[in-house]
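Justification of computing resources. Each target in the renewal requires a structure prediction run like the one illustrated here; the chain below, 259 residues long, is used simply to show the kind of job we budget for.
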Amino acid sequence: MSTERTDWRGRPGPIGVLTGAGISTDSGIPDFRGPQGVWTNDPIAELLFTYPNYLADPELRKKSWLSRRDNPAWQAEPNAAHKALAELEHAGRAVRIITQNIDRLHQRGGSSPRKVIEIHGNMFDVVCVQCTYHTTMEVALERVANGEPDPACPVCDGILKSATIMFGQQMDQRTVWQAVQVAENSQVFLAIGSSLRVEPAASMCAVAVDHGADLVIVNNEPTPYDHLATEVIRDPIGEAVPRIVADLLAAHPAGESAG
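Resulting structure tokens:
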């Protein structure tokens, strides 16, 4: 079900997309704040994603490494929504994706890496909080499997973490700037599968609207930005996104607005 149908589908020009955990649930990755979300069912789990707690508590870090090892994203495959957004790009529409997800399913689903802004980082790289050391998650998890439950940096003995942005951790300002540029230059801005409660990512909706974009929200629960939307779509994401892409491409066929 959706609110009234408008002519936003016919607008030419750049398309911005903000995706949250909801776009990956069809791939077997649970969201965080939904009715069956990870934090809804286990509020303590949110501590694993809080930066000051992570730095201060070795036992919490040990649990975090096990959580990374067991993350369902390792086995997940891109779903119809990821593939549809990639189709939009490949058809020649100017589209950029700002994702709050760390699973890289957009890239695996066919979106060009340079078109995807990982505003919260990714789970496949590991960094040191004290020096410039970085490695892959596979290498770090191998150390965990070999008896280091909280592996330290081999260069400076500092704390290692996944290359994700935790609560309480400073955002990468270059990445935020890129996201703002996408929002400011979009004619249509799709917010898909996000509770729109985590800033600054959620505020990209307001930035886009302030610069003249039509905001379209695809989410099964209300969000704080629904009142700014041209249209709010509550249909399942795996059905809604391919339909939206088909409508956008029908209005402006392949190659019309490449970028």
